[in-house]
Amino acid sequence: MRTTLTLSALAFLSAGLTAQDPQDDGFRCLANHPEQLQKHLDATPGALEEALAAEARLEEATANFDRAQRGGSTYIIPVVFHIIHNNGAENISDAQVYDAVRVLNQDYNKLNTDWTTVRPDFLDRVADVGIEFRLATIDPQGNCTNGVTRTVSTQTYDGDFEMTQLIQWPRNRYMNIWVAASAGDGVAGYTYYPMWLDNWPEADGIVVDHTYVGAIGTSSTYHSRVLTHEVGHWLNLAHCWGSTNEPGEQSNCSSDDGVADTPNTVGWTACNLNGATCGSPLDNVENYMEYSYCCKMFTEGQGDRMVAALTSNVAQRSSLWQPNNLLQTGVTTAPVLCNAGFTHGRSDVCAGSTVQFTDISYHGVTERLWNFPGGTPSTSTEAAPIVQYDTPGTYPVTMQVSDGVNELTVVQESLVHVFQSPGIDVPVTEGFESTTLNDVAWNAVDNDGDGTFAPTSLAAYSGNQSVRLTNTTSSDGRKDYLYSPTYDLSDATDILITFRYAFAQRNASNDDRLRFYVSNNCGLTWSMRKQLRAGTDLNTVGIVGGDLIPNGPDQWGLAVVDNISSSYHAENFRLRFEFESDGGNNVYIDDININGVSVGMQEPVWDGSGFMIVPNPASSVAHVLFTLPDAGMVAVDLLDALGREVLPLHQGTLGAGQHRLAIPMETLSNGMYLLRVVRKEGASTRRFVVNGSR
Known about the structure:
Radius of gyration: 33 Å
Helix content: 10-25%
Number of helices: 10
Number of strands: 35
């Protein structure tokens, strides 16, 4: 039934969003994002009246539309995909973007192979809309592009209006699509009708969750029609049940989508092909504007409505497909080679591993030559070569491409880091006295490009240097990483790691976090084993308004990591520090010791209680660690839970300095013990748990 959209187009402003039944198969979209739209209307006097006037013009254009203006890819729309990412899975490949454009073009030109399986009742209504989408090859400044931009921002997790303001190309020249980690509120995507965008160009475009882009990569065939659905909204289509985001409601029978050949319906999230609601003999469940995952078609009436919007001047839609704009955006001219570039798989690998490289140069590459020093093969002409690296070291990669006329070269220095395999023998200590980061020893990662971990001589727990990360209020939300080389722990019985750290808050609300991870496969996967937080155990100095420089060993903390299981007794063991800023002060790391080595560090000085048992609980190996300020008589013994002596560990004179006594675990049964250290100054006792087979 054909009805006016004036009232139904406003209905969503007062309609709340209903959570989808977890048993439903369909996706959710947030057409005309009610919350953001209401905020715009409240802040913009006259915006509602202007939108209603634009809607009236669209309805008039639709009523007078001649179907002969449609079909055969008559209209070309230049497109740009803005990938907003935080270096996660949402940073989808160019190939996934290209696949999304493929799906759009099939769906809008009746080239999708599944349209022939539509219910017979609707076969004669399947539309060839006649719109073609092409990625721009020229950006707004006249520079070469492949129609894909990439912006690093944590706003990818919000997917809101503020995120879209990070980057937007002129809406009268390009259709903007923002790809993000989230489109907000658990939906697949959203956009607005042209009526709302006519005088709100800042919001013009489509936001989509990366798992609904194309049919490959992070998406799937199952999700691939969501973008088709959102473009429908962008071209003035409502849901088949009308302008709300709530399918399945009986009240939807009193609204409509403004299209004569789509049966009135309550709306569907599941593929009930026999569904019939609102008095219709059969609902068009397979329509792209439903929420079901079996969508395959637009109707002829929907095609008319979209092209009527595209040929109107509302929201400048008619500017997009004009010949002059197609030339300016490069979508109708043969592109020339203008950019050389490549992507790669994980480039921090162990000797004997491979790295995948992929040429993403554009446009029209006909020849390429790769050079891989240190790799096998050392050269290649393939588009996506796989290269093996057998010798530890740091290696560059060079690629030269040509289109037969033009030639470009790209070089990435120090790209591939190949680590020793098996790794460095333990025990080992790292005090950063002569270590250079960003090589195959230790390396730091600076995803935000604002500085990261680096050696410093300003402060150290021992020696002359430590590693420092400059941290300020403007660093809030950013993460930095410090990675180790490989270590051979294949013969380990227990793993003990200690390190020194120093940190201060700038104010009491700072909640910066230092996390410690381990890997048993050269860094392919990581597992967190310790977290220090600013408000509890990370702060060693207090609140410091200026830049922190620790002054003396009492401003350093000691972290002990003894919860590393036997699955990490591997020959390619690595560790990683991750610092997440909350606007606190600088953080320092020094004297990292693997398997409890105390070289280059001091354990707690005797103060009547200053000794440790590591690990605790223990299964097969354990030690008592303490430091004496001067020589003297010391007694160390193990007691049972009732305080009875079980085993004497030492009795006699010990010199000043560090001491480590092994506990003979093979003589002990599982259970709780007390370990006592006695000096002339007094005695101190610690609980000690023996747990597990030895």
